[in-house]
Write a structure and sequence with these properties.
Chain A: Keywords: Oxidoreductase. The structure holds two protein chains of two kinds. By secondary structure, chain A is of the alpha+beta class. Chain A is built from 24 helices and 51 strands. Helix content of chain A is 22%, strand content 29%. The N and C termini of chain A lie far apart (96 Å). Chain B is α+β, with helices and mostly antiparallel strands. Chain B folds into two domains: 109 residues, Probable tRNA modification gtpase trme, domain 1 (Gyrase A, domain 2); 75 residues, Alpha-Beta Plaits (2-Layer Sandwich), CATH 3.30.70.1520. Chain B is 23% helix and 32% strand. In chain B, a hairpin with a 2-residue loop joins strand 5 and strand 6. Chain B is elongated, with a radius of gyration of 17 Å. Classes of the chains: A alpha+beta, B alpha+beta. At the A-B interface, strand 8, strand 31 and strand 39 of A face strand 7 and helix 5 of B.
Amino acid sequence: MSQSFRTEAGGRIDRDRKVTFSFDGDQLEGYEGDTLASALLANGIHMVGRSFKYHRPRGILTSGSEEPNALVGVYRQGDQTPNLRATQVELYEGLKAISQNRFPSLGFDVGAVNDFLSPLFPAGFYYKTFMWPRSFWDRVYEPIIRAAAGLGKPPKNADHDRYANLYAHCDVLVVGSGPAGLAAALAAAETGARVILCDEQAELGGSLLSETAATIDGKTPVDWVEDAIRTLQAMDNVTLLPRTTAFGYFAQNFVALAERITDHVSEPDPNLPRERLWQLRAKEVVIAAGSIERPMVFPENDRPGIMNAEAGRTYLNRYGVKVGHKALVATACDTAWQAAFDLADAGVEIAAIADLRENPPEALQSIAQARGIRVETACVVTGTTGRKRIDKALLGRVSASGSVASAGDLACDSLLMSGGWTPTVSLYSQSRGKVMWDEAAGAFLPGQHVQNERSAGSSRGLYGLNDVLADGYAAGEEAAKAATGKSAKVTYAVASGAEAGSGGTLGALPDDRDASRVKAFVDYQNDVTAKDVKLAVREGMHSIEHIKRYTTTGMATDQGRLSNMNALAIASKALDKPLTDVGLTTFRQPFTPTTFGTFATSSRGDFFDPVRKTPSHQWATDSDAAFEDVGQWKRAWYFPKAGEDIHAAVARECEVVRNKLGLFDASTLGKIEVVGPDAAEFLERMYTNPWKKLGVGRCRYGLMLNEAGFIIDDGVVGRIAEDRFHVTTTTGGAPSVFATMEDYLQTEWPDLDVWITSTTEQYAVAAVQGPLAREAIAPFVQGIDLSPDAFPHMSVATGTFCGVPCRLFRISFTGEVGFEINVPRRHGEMVWKTLEHEVAKLGGCTYGTETMHVLRAEKGYIIVGQETDGTVTPDDAGMTWAIGKKKHDFVGKRGLQRPDLVADNRKQLVGLLTTDPKVVLEEGAQITESANPAVGTPADGHVTSSYHSPAMGRSIALALVKNGRALEGKTLHVPMPDGSIPVTVTGPVFFDPKGDRLNG
Amino acid sequence: MADDLVSTLYAPDAGQEPLLALPDVSILKTAPLARLSFRGRNGVLAAASKGFGLDLPVKPLSAETGPDRAAFWLGPDEWLLLAQEDMLSETMEGLATALGDTPHALVDVSHRQDAMLVTGDQAAWLLNSGIPIDLHLEAFPVGMVTRTLFHKAPVMLWRIGPDAFVVEAWGSFIDYVAGLLIEAAQELKAA
């Protein structure tokens, strides 16, 4: 029984290498070189799944990536990947696959009841049924739809595979390695151009791998393919990428490829990534994507055993598999005849060739006659029978008027059909090209070029092997010439045989059946029938875009490559409008389903985003600090001692800083060196504050607005020399402030002699804050007089610290005496450890960002991004003191005069004190006038910062409140789920309002 | 050129194990250097070149190298100047003296960035796992230097040989860049 449908010889499989695999638990055998589909067929298995909506038994329809039916789950390393196309799954030892969309088993499926209930599920069923009553949606309809929806089961575990990324460039990318693609690659490579040739299949060669009825340069097609690949492999300028799908064509000839590296290997080397994303910039692209065969739309055209004719031929010639013992070939074009001949020659009984055409070519008829094959002309399949596999086809004779009369039936175990060929224009369409209807080809073909690409061969409607080859060579030559300007003398291979055929049909075929009782499928995967498309038209959907969404035709994973043309023809007939007036939907990326892993590549875990660490990071880690993410930085959040939670640790750190001193890593602050004779003038324009009179060695707090007048950044700026400023920015704002400054310099004020350089990472910064701060740093400072008179608050000086060069700032973000020690970054760890030791000796401690936040909130210092949200002006924040009143101009000055920014009732920064000092408000909580506002009452403001303040012995909060400064002393309310919290409005400075401590 | 510079400027950091050592590619962290960001208009070039002791390149994306120093064109008004670590003050003074009152900006960025040497047959391939520019020898020849991105990190890339590159990144990005390079190189260990 094993592989009883395997031929004696032939095909591209390796008959010396047997492979065992399982399907739904059954142990089966195949050969290396098989796909799961070909191996199943070799074992006589056609039925591999149940359909999406009606749960009808479905078989393998195609041999390619457009396969709509044979979707399987494959187990690997304890997890299961759903919805793989069996036609693309390469067989390997131990492969474990399961069918989908069936319960409890493929043979007996309770969901199949949908098929009998199908009159209840017409097109647009969801839209119609679940509209009413509204209240049923959340509890009834949606849960049921969700439970029934979807194909396959998602994997349960995190993806354990690795995925790689590669950026690449080439002169000519050739997509597809059939005759046109190989010829294009050969021609382009010959010129010396850098060529990449990719193909979604495991083996390069495309249709040539199943072509036996032709010769190329006197060789068999497969011998010619092998020679061509050897030639290409030997060339340094060529990269061959089998198992690689060009899935997306983007702007400026940027093409994304998904290379599958290990999925076909039984036990892959764990060092290998599973897939690689190629982000490829090609100067020229040759699209040689070929064409695919159209199924015929007749009643019950979806039974297992029914297959596209060329797929049947491919399984025979390429994989050595007979699709059945007795096949009926139903066709409207010539090519399927060759399938019948090949199968007959392999010993498959051909029940008949039923050709829709009244007069198929004489030549074909005489070949059939010679083989003793029965030929029926003007003949159409009007139905099929068989429970899990076709056992009989009903035939009808089409009269000249188009009516159909029964022509009996024929027993068969397989049916090969061909409605003609549809060029694969997906990539062309993705390149933003618009397809044009070609009456002669009966197909939509690539039209005008939008990008640097050209289609070759059957993807532009050209057939006949010799013509396709010649077209490929020409496309390759032209592409190389366009990319490099070079050309070469290329000898075209000449083919004989496999000439272009004629014929083809579009849309539903005529039949003599009761239209209300039969299903003729247009889109197999989405279970859309000809009837559904007609219904959609009757119900008012006149554009293909509407029909598509109403019926879901063309929305399956093949994006309608199999179904679009038939659906379009049915709609066009129902609308009595020309096909071109109905339109064609746009093909979009990705060409075939692509894993999330391929898109993510290595951007996961620690590599999702850069994790930036400060010079004290290792010390802090060793000291069990808790960290928080601030932008890309890891910052020490607090330093808990044994048994302390965050509240206890922060309370202790706050008290120690206020009473003694603390050490804080401020290295992440953005730093920009502004240098040049016009440095002060530049800052004058960028910041609200005046700078020209700032003395060398002095610092000033700077406030930066955008053009609209809103606060976007702040920081302390120190004047190092007449022409040199040390600017600091917020941690998160550093890159954007730098970019904004550079932008203004390049576009607005190119006349200024000033340049900016980022020095964020040149310096490590240790902040020592607290009454004992001076004592802690004094032993290490040389060259700077630290006495309060010589070095008062807001000073900067250069000297050395621990013997290394240092820029010392006397500044404070705590309200205490404070110093910020800037040393070259690689000395940062040494300086930190030295200071930590000294600070501890004086009874101080290290503190993290949380304590920093509490201390500055006690002082009412804002944090940009916390007290501001892009709509806060200096006046809103109570910071008009930072605006240089006499300044001629600065960024945002005009914005500040906008009527809405000077209007009354703007939200202003205030302090809030809860009536109950133990209650700490929630940041972001809304503030209202009334304790119990009616639903829908707009809030008067919100809490921006809220902490327990050890210095105040109570909770404190900052808030933006409408007209807040006028409300000082008033009671407002913060409504919360557990009840409203009364708060009193105060000024924003809670601690040491006069600032005496700063100057100690 | 490459060998000289590797030994005199981008010396492997003494005592440090290579970050990666495979037959086809290796990654070495290099010892500290004096690095200066120099900005100014075209008029300053002559004086700056004199002060630095090396002609500042004017061809975009090019480098000039001397026995113990190098200058990279990074933008129409921006150069990165390299010298040996102990030459920092001397180099800055030399430039300051030569430039006098001519408007310019000279900023010490020695500690801002660190460098790695990525060498081997697969060096270009490995870098292209995260760098989007074309590293084919004709498109990015030996001697070319540019700022670019490695995945999400800004880097500076200088080709010092057909199979040898210097990658500079700001200090806090080094772990990210090196980590992703090592991750991408893992497949080279496959049998």
